[in-house]
Amino acid sequence: MTAVPTVRVFGGPTALIEYGGLRLLTDPTFDAPGDYPRGGGRFLTKTLPGTVDPADLGPIDAVLLSHDEHPDNLDHSGRKLLADVPLTLTTRGGAERLGGTARGLAPWQSVESGEVTITAVPAQHGPDGCEPVTGEVIGFVLTGPDLPVVYVSGDNASLEVVEQIAERFGPVDTAVLFAGGARTGIFDNALLTLDSARAAEAARILGARRVVPVHFDSWAHFTEGREPLLAAFAAAGLADVLELR
Questions:
Q1: d(CA 174, CA 119)
Q2: Is residue 73 within 8 Å of 65, Cβ to Cβ?
Q3: How far is residue 129 CA from its own chain's centroid?
C-alpha cells in the first residue's frame, strides 16, 4: 500500500486531500467572518476566516462538495473558486443549481479519475426524517489499487449511516469526519453533524487508522471544538488515531 494521504485542514469543513496523484478539496469556505441570513430572522455566523487564501492552494483536480445549500459548507468565496475547478462532485440537486463543471452523484454512485475511484456515500444531516428541511447531503469514499481507503463524511449525524459505509468499505485508513456537534435550533436542537463522542464511535465503527476532524471551528453553531474532541477520543481509547492540526 502506498503512503498515507496528505490532509491539510483550513478551518470549518475545508481540507485539501492529496491522494493517488489527485488534489481534492472538501467543502470550500474562505470568507471573512460575518453573518449569513437564513430566513425568518435566523443567521449562521462565521467567527473566523479560513487559514489559506484560495489563490495559494495551487491546482485543484476536484472539489468534493457535500452539499451546496448551507454557507458553512459553501460560502461566497467557495462558490467563486468552483468556476476555476475542472470538476465539482456533489449532490444531484446541487449539480443542477450550480451548473458549470458540477456533476451530481447519487449515494453509492462512483466516478473514476486516473487510478482513483470516488464513490458518493449517504449522509444524514440531522435526525431521521430531516431531509425535507436540511436537504440532500453526501459523503465520499476514495479507493484505488494499492491505495488506502479514505472516507469523507460530509455533514452526517447518523452512526447508522457510518455502519453502512463500514460494511462496504471498512476498515478505513483515513476518516475525515465532519464533527463539531452542529446545532441551529431546528429539530429541537438535535445534532446536525457528529458531536465529539459520536465522532469517536464512528472511528471505532470504521476501524479507522487515522481520523482528521474538520467542521468543528470557525462557525457559531458548531458547539464542540478541539478540547471535546481530544477528551472524547481519549475516553474511547482512541487518542492515538486522532490527528488534530
A1: 15
A2: yes
A3: 20
pLDDT in tens, 104-158: 999 999 999 989 999 999 999 777 877 777 779 999 999 999 999 999 999 999 9
Q: Which amino acid is at 221?
A: H
CA distance 29 to 54: 9
**Dist CA 158 CA 126 (whole Å):** 7
Q: Cα-atom radius of gyration of the chain, to the nearest Å? A: 16
Burial of 83 (0-12, 13-18, 19+ CB in 10 A): exposed
pLDDT in tens, 172-214: 999 999 999 888 877 777 888 999 999 999 999 999 999 999 9
pTM over 0.70: yes
Beta-carbon count within 10 A of 133 CB: 10
CA dist list (Å): 112 to 109, 115, 160, 235: 11, 7, 27, 39
Closest C-alpha to 61, from 32, 34, 87, 90:
87
With contact defined as beta carbons under 8 Å apart, do 126 and 134 qualify?
Answer: yes
Cell (9 digits) for 93: 440537486
* Closest residue by Cα to residue 26 from 158, 115, 123: 123
